[in-house]
Amino acid sequence: MTASADLQKNLSDEALLDLVQRQTFRYFWEGAHPISGLARDRTNRFTDPSDDAIAVGGSGFGVMTIIVACERGWVKRDEAVARLNAMLNVLDRSTCYHGMYPHFMNGATGATIPFSRKDDGGDVVETSFLFQGLLCARAYFDRDSAEELRLRQRISYLWEEVEWNWYTQGGRTVLTWHWSPTNGFALNHDIRGWNECLITYVLAASAPRYGIPAQAYHEGFTQGRQFLNRRSFEGIALPLGCDWGGPLFLAHFSFGSIDPRGLSDAYADYWRQNVNHTLINYAYCVRNPKSYKGYGPKCWGLSAGDAVTGYAASAPDNDLGVINPSAALSSFCYAPDQAMAALRHFYEDLGDRLWGRFGFVDGFSPQHDWYADTFLAISQAPIIIMIENYRSGLLWKLFMGIPEIQQGMKKLGFKSPYLS
User: Fold this and answer.
1) What is the rounded distance in angstroms from the CA atom of residue 21 to the CA atom of residue 23?
2) Residue 50 contacts by C-beta under 8 Å, 6 or more apart in sequence?
3) Integer Cα distance of 42 and 114 in angstroms
4) Interatomic CA distance for residues 407 and 205, integer angstroms
């Protein structure tokens, strides 16, 4: 693959989707750590980082993009398997914490890089993002060749060793986000309320050796103050979450793998949740109550990412005047017409400022005449993954077809066409 940021004209919708997915994939192929192929947390528009830091969750999303690239023929199957085995070489020898990985680590050695003073150990959520990708890879690379068999065995070994139940602090009915060998559970951050962590509870319930009971989901995650909403915003009902829905990545991170179509439990219809969350975000940007320059039907999408003063979580109730391209582009499944209008505007009208070697930059603000010079793993990957799910359902079919996942979701009380 050769990188090019030249803008092309008069592309059909399908050709434009191809281009955006493929260009963005370069972040995880050409822009990955040179030894392990694990994903860097962020990269500059023109230069690569000089350090060895990689993001564990971003790497899991990156695994999913490699599957897409293989399926679409951007990389050869043996190249994809070789890259994944290189990633596993470092994951195998990296420091883990009762099977969990840290937020950041050294992409060459696997050594932990502390996220903060006391966050220097296992991160349950980042680990769940990693394993949703690895399990999709285990399902996709299903041939009888020695290398694919070895890949599946290596993933299964790591998956079976994760002690999800350790992170209930001895049997509490809720998962704790962090544990450190030096600080223990000092951060004591319970994973409750509607957020990006549905995938965490699904994986923890599905674990073959160290799973959690269903009560941890029903008495922990769903009992957070901001789990149920059931109010309307912009005239649209919001089943779950904080008022106005929060940043749009909440509809993307868990649902790159979990198929929300026809998915429900005692609390919500998850397709309705994600569609309505998206439409509230869109309608708010169109209404534009703060009269920010640039907002409108073709320029919308509030989420977490780089903003004028640094990384921030933007949402209708925390509107900073910054549009995150990933917010709209990762929402093709939920609002395809609105997402395509945004894509064409970002590419055709603003491409000279937004488009680069790894796709669209992380954020921009016409109001402040500001355009990011960075790409972020957790923003770039959902663009590829969710557009692919819109086009083919590839990652959804892989993940929802995994026997352990089906058993875990049944245990939690989910209903889905995959579970019948």
Assistant:
1) 6
2) none
3) 16
4) 8
- What tokens appear for 98 in the block? 């009762």
Question: Would you say residue 225 has pLDDT above 90?
Answer: no
Distance, in Å, from the CA atom of 178 to the CA atom of 175, rounded to the nearest integer, reads 9
Across 201-280, where does the E strand assignment appear?
A: 228-233, 236-240
Q: Once rounded to an integer, what is the mean pLDDT over residues 348-372?
A: 98
Q: How many CB atoms lie within 10 A of CB 156?
A: 15
Positions of E strands within 136-210: 178-179
24, 139, 267, 312, 404 from 150: Cα distances, Å:
29, 13, 40, 40, 20
How many CB atoms are closer than 10 A to CB 281? 32
Q: Are 191 and 221 in contact (CB under 8 A)?
A: yes
Q: Using the structure block, give the residue that is written with the tokens 């994939």.
A: 25
- Average of per-residue pLDDT across 37-45: 97
pLDDT at residue number 3: 41
Cβ partners under 8 Å of residue 399, min gap 6: 132, 135, 136, 139, 257, 258, 259, 405
Q: Are 345 and 298 in contact (CB under 8 A)?
A: yes
170 CB burial (10 A radius; 0-12, 13-18, 19+):
exposed
Give the separation between CA 242 and CA 232, rounded to whole angstroms: 11
Long-range Cβ pairs for the range 168-174 (8 Å, 24+) = 168/212, 168/216, 172/216, 172/220, 173/213, 173/215, 173/216, 173/218, 173/219, 173/220, 174/216, 174/219, 174/220, 174/221
Give the single-character DSSP code of 315: B
The single residue listed with the structure tokens 């799910």 is 389
Above 90 in pLDDT, residue 23? Answer: yes
For helices 56-71 and 377-391, give the axis angle rounded to 10 degrees.
Answer: 30
Q: Are 61 and 377 in contact (CB under 8 A)?
A: yes
Q: What is the pTM of this model?
A: 0.97
Cα 199 from Cα 205, distance rounded (Å): 10
Confidence of residue 420 (pLDDT cuts 50, 70, 90): confident
pLDDT given for residue 267 in this prediction: 98
Residue 1 has pLDDT above 60, yes or no: no
Coil/strand/helix, residue 250:
helix
